[in-house]
């Protein structure tokens, strides 16, 4: 029965993803590395075969421009070439240290620009963080959590009948956070049947937006609690979020970046712990099986929550952000949000918020998934966190993907979570 349900979810994800992607590009730029697995050893040369396709046929006598170099760094090679026979092979010397090498190709056809980029890996399992671990890292976060808990948690649940159905009850939730007038908002989905259930904390990607509940996992017998991070209700009109994104919450990730107690992500990280406090208070929660799950910024928050809260037993993270943020200061790709220059004070503050330092304290099984060609969260950055995790970890790698997922990834993560949380 469970497998049938998973296949149904796959069908729904496929339909929704096709609708979201819309039409493909008229012209496809195909970049193929000469290693089938896209993995190389440091110092090894690489070759890229480049072809352009339209209507499944190669385009000939088209000029392309290409750039090759370390991920997110200035290119070490750039040139143009005419694809006389529809294909060109470009050789590169590769990398002299572990990391990712980018190959970007552009072409203009009938006045329309086209672009593609892929990254290949050079001993990516050996990438290490540039960010250092502060000596008082754990004591700092222990003190921050204690400070938050000095303010009692109070919660309000509002049943949403129009979003509920025979299988799932949906609630809007408002929780007092760590100071008077400070709240955390979320959407709670509970299986509509008797019993006690495992739970998943769903953590959001970057931006300012409305969030809906995760009813798919709830239909499989799991409580889900999806939170926002900005302390604003999640059922406002779209223009309200747009105004906040352009106004008070513009570039929120930079707010107070030189002060470790007041940095924007302080209340955000603590909000993840507070969200688990709320889950733990639910009479429908089984009191034992709790997972954290998210992608991008949500992937970062997943690792943070897993490191700070021992109640979390499993984690699932897609292409986590905020990893090795100071990487650019060491002439290599750093994590989202891409800070090129930092003051000494900012560097000191961000070390307390860098996901690589939380990754060092993860001791629970994790499901991870990403690709090599992510231009938003560079793989150099998230491998620097992944490589320091010593806990059991399962990686579902789809090398061509960037900052997006295939429907199959969503199905696999749901199945992994169900298997772990229910023991089935």
From TrEMBL:
Q: Which Pfam families match?
A: AXE1
Q: Which InterPro entries match?
A: AB_hydrolase_fold, AXE1_dom, CE7
Tell me where on the tree of life, at the top rank, the source sits. Bacteria
Q: Where along the chain is the active site annotated?
A: 296, 374, 403
Identify a single GO molecular function assigned to this protein: carboxylic ester hydrolase activity
The answer to whether keyword Signal applies is yes
Q: Which positions fall inside the Acetyl xylan esterase domain?
A: 127-419
Which keywords are on file for this protein? Signal
Q: Which residues form the signal peptide?
A: 1-19
GO terms, biological process: polysaccharide metabolic process
Query: What name has this protein been given in UniProt?
Result: Acetyl xylan esterase domain-containing protein
């Amino acid at each position: 029965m469970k497998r049938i349900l998973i296949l149904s979810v796959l069908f729904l994800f496929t339909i929704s993803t096709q609708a979201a992607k819309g039409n493909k590009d008229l012209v496809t730029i195909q970049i193929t590395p000469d290693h089938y697995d896209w993995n190389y050893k440091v110092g090894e040369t690489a070759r890229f075969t480049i072809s352009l396709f339209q209507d499944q046929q190669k385009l000939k006598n088209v000029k392309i421009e290409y750039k090759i170099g370390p991920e997110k760094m200035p290119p070490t090679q750039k040139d143009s070439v005419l694809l006389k026979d529809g294909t060109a092979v470009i050789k590169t010397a590769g990398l002299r240290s572990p990391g990712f090498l980018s190959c970007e190709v552009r072409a203009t056809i009938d006045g329309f620009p086209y672009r593609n980029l892929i990254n290949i890996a050079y001993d990516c399992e050996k990438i290490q963080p540039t960010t250092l671990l502060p000596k008082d890292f754990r004591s700092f976060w222990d003190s921050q959590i204690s400070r938050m808990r000095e303010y009692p948690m109070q919660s309000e649940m509002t049943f949403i009948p129009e979003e509920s159905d025979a299988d799932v009850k949906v609630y809007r939730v408002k929780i007092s956070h760590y100071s008077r007038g400070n709240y955390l908002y979320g959407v709670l989905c509970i299986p509509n049947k008797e019993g006690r259930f495992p739970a998943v904390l769903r953590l959001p990607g970057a931006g300012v937006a409305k969030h809906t509940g995760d009813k798919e996992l709830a239909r499989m017998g799991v409580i889900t609690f999806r939170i926002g991070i900005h302390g604003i209700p999640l059922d406002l009109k779209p223009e309200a979020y747009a105004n906040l994104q352009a106004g008070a919450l513009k570039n929120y990730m930079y707010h107070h970046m030189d002060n470790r107690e007041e940095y924007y992500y302080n209340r955000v990280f603590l909000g993840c712990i507070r969200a688990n406090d709320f889950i733990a208070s639910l009479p429908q929660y089984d009191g034992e099986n709790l997972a954290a799950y998210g992608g991008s910024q949500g992937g970062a928050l997943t690792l943070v929550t897993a490191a700070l809260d021992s109640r979390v037993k499993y984690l699932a993270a897609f292409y986590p952000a905020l990893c090795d943020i100071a990487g650019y200061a060491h002439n290599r790709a750093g994590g989202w949000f891409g800070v090129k220059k930092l003051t000494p004070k900012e560097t000191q503050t961000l070390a307390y918020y860098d996901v690589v330092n939380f990754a060092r304290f993860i001791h629970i099984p994790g499901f991870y998934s990403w690709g090599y060609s992510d231009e938003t969260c560079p793989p150099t950055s998230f491998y620097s966190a992944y490589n320091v995790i010593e806990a059991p970890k399962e990686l579902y790698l789809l090398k061509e993907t960037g900052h997006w997922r295939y429907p199959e990834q969503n199905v696999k993560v749901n199945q992994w979570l169900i298997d772990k949380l229910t023991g089935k």
